[in-house]
Write a structure and sequence with these properties.
By secondary structure, this protein is mainly α. It contains six helices and no strands. The chain starts with 15 loop residues before the first helix and ends with a helix.
């Protein structure tokens, strides 16, 4: 499976040239990883994930949860990926909002 093959709807990825620059790789080498022609070693995979603000598991399509509902799992993955680009304060605000939704449901 090609690295970074997730749908563009869920994630806007930079061009290969921009991603390669961010990671510090040759553009051709990065393009081989992105297309699935080659697989990066673990250290390179971690560098790619860090530079793109995500996790190696997300890049590889490894599920964060074991939910039986694939749509719920996809939402959780998207949320976790979005959180990688947030400050601690922004994440705290999201958690407070989520907890408020749950509390409101339990009062109903």
């Amino acid at each position: 499976m090609p690295l970074l093959s997730l749908p563009a709807v869920q994630w806007h990825r930079p061009s290969n040239a921009e991603a390669a620059r961010r990671v510090g790789l040759d553009e051709r080498r990065y393009a081989h990883y992105a297309s699935g022609r080659r697989e990066p070693d673990l250290a390179t995979l971690v560098r790619i994930a860090d530079s793109l603000g995500t996790s190696p598991n997300w890049l590889l399509g490894v599920a964060l949860t074991s939910s039986q509902d694939p749509q719920l799992s996809a939402y959780i993955e998207r949320f976790a990926n979005a959180a990688n680009g947030m400050s601690k304060h922004e994440i705290e605000m999201c958690v407070i909002q989520a907890e408020a939704v749950v509390a409101a449901k339990s009062r109903s």
